[in-house]
Design goal:
The complex is a heterodimer of chains A (129) and B (317). Chain A has helices at 16-27, 41-51, 65-78, 94-103, 115-125, and strands at 3-7, 31-34, 55-60, 85-90, 107-109. A five-stranded parallel β-sheet of chain A has the order 2-1-3-4-5, sandwiched between helices. The longest helix of chain A has 14 residues, at 65-78. Chain A is of the alpha/beta class and 129 residues long. Chain A has a single domain (3-9, 24-61, 68-124), classed as Cobalamin-binding domain (Rossmann fold), CATH 3.40.50. Chain B folds into two domains: 43-252, P-loop containing nucleotide triphosphate hydrolases (Rossmann fold), CATH 3.40.50; 264-316, no CATH class. In chain B, 54% of the residues lie in helices and 14% in strands. Chain B has helices spanning 2-12, 16-27, 31-41, 60-73, 102-105, 123-137, 152-158, 174-181, 183-186, 200-213, 235-251, 254-284, 288-296, 302-316, and strands at 48-54, 78-84, 93-95, 110-116, 142-148, 163-168, 189-192, 224-226. Chain B has a seven-stranded parallel β-sheet, with helices on both faces. The longest helix of chain B has 31 residues, at 254-284. Chain B is globular and about 70 Å long. Classes of the chains: A alpha/beta (129), B alpha/beta (317). The complex binds guanosine-5'-triphosphate and magnesium ion. Guanosine-5'-triphosphate (GTP) is lined by residues 56-62, 97, 100, 148, 193-194, 196-197, 228-230 of chain B.
């Protein structure tokens, strides 16, 4: 069973997109832990650790990804969660994508991404036991 | 089995990562998970397991959050399991109980995990039993387990709790629902949450009159407590009621009796695993088809075949 944490770090107040993703992943047969709005990086990583998820799907609309993502990656490394697949969605300017990928994000999904592409990407990268 | 050893040590030291990974093994129903749960069992038996059940949206998760903060102030370590249903069609699930628990779960003395019911027969209660064993062995004093009180599997889970708390809310007609679903019978503590809303006293009265009718509780009279989980009102009374019920169980020897029957259950599980292993081996055997034909034609009883299979496996060892 593939387990995914859909998390919304930061201060933006919209989680419609995150909920759409959560439902799509559920409909694809995955277990989706959703933790709501306004999560700190510490809370996100604590939840990923406790729930032992295979995938961490971050949704960031606020533009704060340049600070939030590296901090999350730092905590992920500190906790030795090497096998965690990290995805990023929301509003990420083209120029920042490269930085996000080198920070450790596996793939960035922009607005208007077909949820089937996300499902497919996860299935390719996570072996389902 | 270096991995298993390491994991066990991590669990004894209360390490979140080890606890989380151990729970995954147990949930997946893998052989390592069974082994881990068995090895941890003798280290468990200290925790007070509290079931929290009630209709969707009555405020169970919010209550768990506030109660956890309260229990932490009293110095207890708190483990939390929240069970949500899996979709019967896709097997997927959205596990949203953590949303309401964000205030309490960051504490190192708290561990919270969401479980999906995963549909398969008996699988949930086994996974839950294993998960309770693990959290108990990891040193959590109070283990709170939240379920939506509906199906048979939820009732089975509540039977694993020492104390079951039934949560209702006014004005949802769910007092009637609860009575229909038979969850009044399983409660030792009743909570009428959302007491900031109209109709809480009415709900209290209807629970009281239902309880007066049932003679299930010879020496424990279940208290009915009004709470506002969102601001903590009533939480002191709830934690006192839980503590009193725990004392009641200890004084009446019921905690020991419970542990005894759990241990019996562990043996039963091992025996039924053995049975499963036997049948798996027998199916691989070259004479399996002949056996099926013979039983079908009445040449031999199924009981006799079972004995043959058993004898065969003993000889092979
Ligand atoms: N007015 C009021 N609302 C409350 C109270 N406690 C919880 N709520 C609200 O009730 C809603 C449901 O709360 P949850 O804690 O998620 O309820 P639940 O029983 O865990 O729900 P499920 O897990 O979906 O069955 C939320 O919007 C809470 O904010 C309360 O004491 N008063
Ligand atoms: Mg809940």
């Amino acid at each position: 069973m593939i387990r995914v944490l859909v998390a919304k770090p930061g201060l933006d107040g919209h989680d419609r997109g995150a909920k759409v993703i959560a439902r799509a992943l559920r409909d694809a047969g995955m277990e989706v832990v959703y933790t709501g709005l306004h999560q700190t990086p510490e809370q996100v990583v604590d939840a990923a650790l406790s729930e032992d998820v295979d995938v961490l799907a971050l949704s960031i609309l606020s533009g704060a990804h340049p600070t939030l993502v590296p901090r999350i990656m730092e905590l992920v490394r500190e906790n030795g969660m090497d096998d965690l697949l990290i995805l990023l969605g929301g509003i990420i300017p083209e120029d920042d994508v490269e930085n996000m990928l080198s920070a450790g994000v596996a793939k960035v999904f922009g607005p208007g991404t077909d949820t089937n592409d996300i499902v497919r990407f996860i299935r390719e990268r996570v072996k389902d036991e | 089995m270096k991995d298993l050893d390491e994991l066990r040590q991590g669990i004894f030291h209360g390490q979140k990562r080890a606890i989380a990974r151990g729970l995954t093994w147990i949930e997946q129903g893998r052989y390592e998970g069974k082994l881990l749960a068995q090895q941890l069992f003798s280290h468990a038996g200290h925790a007070h397991v509290i079931g929290i059940t009630g209709a969707p949206g009555v405020g169970k998760s919010t209550l768990v959050n506030t109660l956890t903060l309260h229990l932490r102030n009293q110095g207890f370590k708190v483990g939390i399991l929240a069970v949500d249903p899996s979709s019967p069609f896709t097997g997927g699930a959205i596990l949203g109980d953590r949303i309401r628990m964000q205030d309490s779960v960051m504490d190192t003395g708290v561990f919270m995990r969401s479980l999906a019911s995963r549909g398969h027969l008996g699988g949930l209660s086994r996974a839950t039993f294993g998960a309770l064993t693990l959290l108990d062995a990891a040193g959590f004093d109070k283990i709170l387990i939240e379920t939506v009180g509906a199906g048979q599997s939820e009732v089975e889970i509540m039977e694993m709790a020492h104390t079951t708390m039934v949560v209702l809310a006014p004005g949802m007609g769910d007092d009637i629902q609860a009575i229909k679903a038979g969850i009044l019978e399983i409660g030792q503590v009743f909570v009428v949450n959302k007491a900031d809303r109209d109709g809480a006293d009415h709900t209290v009265r209807s629970i009281r009159s239902m309880l007066a009718l049932s003679s299930e509780h010879p020496d424990w009279m279940p208290p009915i407590i009004k709470t506002v989980a969102e601001d903590g009102r009533g939480m002191e009374e709830v934690s006192q009621a839980l503590e009193r019920h725990h004392q009641y169980l200890i004084e009446h020897g019921l905690m020991d009796r419970y542990r005894w029957s759990q241990t019996e259950h562990v043996i039963e599980q091992a025996v039924s695993d053995l049975g499963e292993r036997l049948i798996r081996q027998a199916r691989l055997n070259s004479d399996w088809a002949k056996r099926v034909i013979d039983v079908g034609e009445g040449k031999i009883d199924a009981d006799r075949v079972a004995e043959q299979i058993w004898h065969q496996s003993v000889q092979e060892e």
